[in-house]
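Lab notebook, bench 4. Continuing the backlog of folding jobs that were queued last week. Each job is logged with the same field layout so the records can be merged later without manual cleanup. Today's entry covers Pectate lyase superfamily protein domain-containing protein, a 677-residue chain. Filled in by technician R.K.

JOB TYPE: sequence-to-structure
TARGET: Pectate lyase superfamily protein domain-containing protein
LENGTH: 677
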Amino acid sequence: MSSTPRSSRRHLLASAAGLCGAALATTIATADEAAAADTGAGWLNVRDPAYGALGDDKADDAPAIQKAIDAAGQGGTVYLPPGRYRLESPLRLSLGVTLRGDWNPHFPDRTFLVDSYLRPAYGGLFDGDALIIVDQAPVQDAYYRSAYRGGPRLYGLALRGCYDDHNLKAQNKAGTGIDGVRLNPGVKDVGMDKVTIWRFTGHGVNAQNAAALQFNQVHCVGTNGHGFTFGDAAGTGGGLVDADLFQCYSQGNQLHGYDILNPNAVTMVDCRAEWNVQHGYHITGINYSMVMVGCNTDRSGQDGFHLSTAAGGRFLQLVGCLAKRDGRLATATSAGFRITGEAAEGVVLTGCSTSTGRDDDNGGDFSPAYGITTSALNSASSVSVVGGEYVGTTAPFNDVGAVVVRHSGVTAGTHTTTGITWDKSDVHMVSGAAGTTRDVQFWSRGKNRRWALRATSATESGTGDGSDFALVRHGDDGTALDTPITVNRSSGRVTLGQEGTTPGVVVNAAASPGLHLVQTRAAGQGYAVTGKDTASRAFQSQVTGDTINRFAIEINGTQSFGPGGSTGRDTTWGRLGAAQIGSTDSDIVAGLAGKGLRVKEGTNAKMGTLTLNGTTAVTVPTTAVTTTSRIFLTIQSPGGTPAGIAYVSARTPGTSFSVKGAAGDTSTVAWLIVDPA
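JOB STATUS: finished
OUTPUT FIELD FOLLOWS
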């Protein structure tokens, strides 16, 4: 292999006036370049006399450069030494020729690149609609050989559209705009590496129905159209297919930074869109598959990422993408990320973020209005947001389509005149179409599901019905056993426990009864309260506005009563001792006339009646009588002569007592047994 450094070799190529290009390439080519030249003419210098390019910014160098391109053939390299190459017609490539220069400014205006570039002839002299046009290569097979052993490569080129911003002198003979690079329909396997395109009156890169593209550090700056546009000129449903864009840059263009139709197997890594008048990234049509990693925007006129996908797409994944200060021309409606269109199936934002801000000079208003905005997509759509930080001047989320699914780790904030107000809650959202089951499931690893928190599939009509909440219990085989807890969405009714279709406990927040227990188990217990200690309370009740409960049942069964409001409970009764119940702080008072004490009469009762039989004892059998019982006798109906004399003549505790009267007394007497407390 030759020891000549590549930089020295290129210097020789650049300065070799008067030498034959083919001979020069043969003289200085290394072994690997010689091998690569087997199918072409090796390295050809456009400044060689055989081709005659001058690079003086005056002569029309298009014929000379095109002659070198045609001579290079498949696998050859056409080298453009530093110079200003004025073209009156497009350069056209179809075979696998590498068009190579040594320039690639990231910010062409800042670097004031005036020495090395390709440009169209000004004053309407340029006859074409793009400075470089790539045509479809000869096709030998429908798929495997459609790129004809490798397509064209553009490396290290600077394409300059005009001197001043959007200078109309750079229009073509037809009076229309000029693109920097045009890839015609059917073009495949094109590589662009370190190419800068700026100030064109058309688009920077215009690729229609192209596929298998590899772009690395391609910069499109200050065009009158899109920075990059990938469309479907043939109307066949094509767009951008099998493409990789790495560290590409689109800045200051009058339309979108990146305009992409129907992406399919597309990957964008570390690309940037800045200061474009419309959207930073504009993705439309059927999104078959696309991944964006580490891409970012800054100060787009409208949305940072505008994703408008049509039905039939599969997924669009954004990882670590940043939308910064977008919406500078639409501050009231703009969004860092906008998901709209007919469908957004599988849109996933992982670790993405938006931030608000003004222009670099701190002028203008803060933007964007929202971190994420969605439209009313179809009910099967979802936008999954995992992690990240989203800030807007109006709100972090404007989920008009109700399709955002927020997972753990998402931070949100609203930028106001006093600063950012952060929403510090951690929200996990499960979103699904109306009428479908939405579950959070708990499984045993290696086995089946055990529990599920569920929004049911009950039909929704828009009146608050359907989509009830349920806790579902599953058996060991994963089948649903029952729903121990359900919550009715329309009424707020909570049902606890189910056996078949019969509810156990129904709790109604706004209906009667408030609490309804249906016990379906024979000999079952209704309610049971277990307190931690004797100070626990089993039940209490109050009226709205009360500060003190009106009624309470302590864990030992003691009941207390009060008038409500802020007055404490003043009446208590409960267990006083063994086999004793009563009140320690009040008497039994009949508050209404005609109300008072009633005692059940009958066998072994403490109250009843008897008829006197003169001086003969009348025995009343009752186990209620004790040795200390007070037995009260009152005449209910006098009878006989004399009448109204009665007294207790004897008692047998636990068995009976006897009553006598005067001779001839047959009065009816009521008796009452009362024991001292």
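OBSERVATION: Residues 251 and 274 are 5 Å apart (CA to CA).
SIGNED: R.K.
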